[in-house]
Design goal:
Blueprint (H helix, E strand, L loop, with lengths): L1 H27 L3 H4 L1 H10 L10 H12 L2 H14 L2 H26 L2 E2 L5 E2 L2 H9 L2 H35 L3 H17 L1 H30 L4 H12 L10 H16 L6 H5 L7 H29 L11 H13 L2 H33 L3 H20 L3 H24 L1 H16 L29
Antiparallel strand pairs: 1-2
Helix pairs in contact: 1-6, 1-12, 1-18, 3-14, 4-10, 4-14, 4-16, 5-12, 5-14, 5-15, 6-11, 6-12, 6-14, 6-19, 7-8, 8-9, 8-16, 8-17, 8-18, 9-16, 9-17, 10-14, 10-16, 14-15, 15-16, 16-17
Length: 466
């Protein structure tokens, strides 16, 4: 029953939601992700500045990349290519292109409606902009519960299962010992709260990303003469024009969109939770940074994985096996057996930082639901660690199928909220664009222009009141 429901929701509803509304946001904003593409690099450079006691924009970016760049970039791409053929990669690109606009707007709203908590730290996300933007706390609580169940609990088990079995295949490490070690290391980081999580992400995300890109680019360079033909195969297969993959066009679209969403999370409502914690001068600045992270995740890292698989000669139509094994064997076919070891190590780093991100999403939304109840938060921390160990040693197929369903429900609630708040998001974007048009390189948000909105004056004080 779960499989039937999941196929309908992720195979039909999710495509309409993500691609349909993402396209609407793109057209209404005059292709904001393309208009601001070059500007993204300047905002990224500015994000390196200190957050003045809060997390900086760069730290928020690293934390969101910790979540976006996870098992989906290795296993997810492998699954998409296995089931949907090379054409699935094209539909992942389409999903990312429209997802960049969705991510920009959801993260802008996350910043706009953020709140200062009792510790003086910023918190925000879909639950906050649903409550304070739409005035519907009950719906915000549903959103918080879905985020808690999907990211905070179910996805952590999925990630742990992927990495421990990869380590077992590559090194023969017992899944039990690997699960215990992972839970222990994660527990140490969890205790330090958001600042320690961000510090670990600051260290590991650039290392894992640059190392993975470097190795996959090495493979691409070795097979560079085949790259143009392979890119053409990806495009032709996406529309059923390649004979070898002609019968996979429907599956290519479904798998491309589904795995693309799983990889970059644009529109699901996860990224706004971490985007909101940053100290920035204008909400749109963090929205632009987060749109850039979608570009990095899909157009760069996912494409590297796809080309690694397709250029290796290991993949053939009708391949049977999981996505991790496909990626490991594809790299090994080009560089030798150390390729399997590298993929396993890379996956471990990807998953470790991704679980930190998932944990924070769960904690942030649990706080939204129950407030600052320390005992409940400690209980949640313990539950996450237990689930990580459980997922490391057991096949939680039913739990994962349930998570796919709640992921689609997340997209539905979040994208509906974005559609209803789109007018407000456009007002904020126009304010940002007008300041840039006036020659202001780094626009500054003035809450005095938005007194009709339910904003936190500690997060966004009026400029004439400073």
């Amino acid at each position: 029953m779960l499989e039937v429901i999941n196929d309908f929701l992720s195979g039909k509803v999710l495509i309409v939601l993500i691609v349909g509304l993402g396209s609407y946001f793109t057209i209404r904003s005059r292709f904001v992700q393309l208009r601001h593409f070059v500007h993204m690099f300047a905002v990224f450079r500015n994000s390196l500045r200190s957050g003045n006691g809060q997390l900086s924009s760069f730290q928020a970016l690293m934390l969101s990349l910790a979540g976006r760049v996870g098992a989906g970039n290795i296993a997810g791409v492998g699954i998409a290519v296995t089931l949907g053929g090379p054409g699935a990669v094209f539909w992942m690109w389409v999903t990312a292109l429209v997802g960049m606009s969705s991510s920009l707007f959801e993260c802008t709203l996350g910043q706009l409606y953020k709140r200062c908590d009792s510790d003086g730290q910023f918190r925000g996300g879909p639950s906050f902009y649903i409550q304070h933007g739409l005035g519907k706390r009950w719906l915000g609580m549903i959103m918080a519960f879905l985020l808690l169940m999907t990211f905070g609990l179910a996805f952590n088990g999925l990630q742990a299962h992927a990495v421990t079995h990869s380590l077992n295949d590559a090194f023969g490490v017992s899944t039990t010992y690997a699960g215990l070690a992972m839970a222990a290391l994660l527990g140490i980081v969890f205790i330090g709260g958001i600042k320690r999580i961000a510090a670990v992400a600051d260290l590991l995300v650039p290392i894992k990303t640059l190392a993975y890109i470097a190795v996959t680019l090495y493979v691409i360079v070795l097979q560079f003469d085949q790259v143009p033909a392979m890119l053409m195969t990806i495009v032709k297969s996406a529309f059923g024009l390649d004979q070898a993959f002609g019968g996979l066009i429907g599956t290519a679209i479904v798998m491309g969109v589904k795995r693309g969403v799983f990889a970059n999370e644009a529109g699901l409502g996860g990224a706004p939770n971490v985007a909101a914690v940053a100290q920035v001068d204008h909400p749109v600045a963090q929205g632009v940074v987060q749109a850039f992270s979608v570009f990095l995740d899909t157009f760069l890292i996912c494409t590297c994985t796809a080309l690694l698989i397709l250029l290796s000669g290991f993949y053939t139509p009708g391949f049977e096996g999981d996505g991790i094994a496909l990626t490991q064997n594809s790299l090994a076919a080009v560089v030798g057996d150390w390729g399997r070891i590298f993929i396993s190590v890379a996956l471990s780093l990807f998953v470790f930082t991704s679980i930190l991100y998932n944990y924070y999403l769960g904690e942030s939304n649990l706080r939204f639901l129950i407030g600052e109840n320390r005992k409940v938060l400690v209980g949640y921390r313990v539950l996450v660690l237990v689930l990580i160990f459980w997922g490391a040693v057991e096949d939680l197929g039913t739990v994962f199928a349930f998570a796919d369903i709640t992921m689609t429900m997340l997209a539905f609630v979040n994208l509906m909220a974005l559609a209803l708040l789109f007018g407000i998001a456009m007002r904020v974007l126009r304010d940002y664009d007008n300041q840039r048009a006036a020659g202001i390189a780094e626009p500054v948000f003035d809450a005095a222009k938005f007194r009709d909105l339910d904003l936190d004056n500690r997060a966004w004080p009026e400029r004439d009141a400073r």
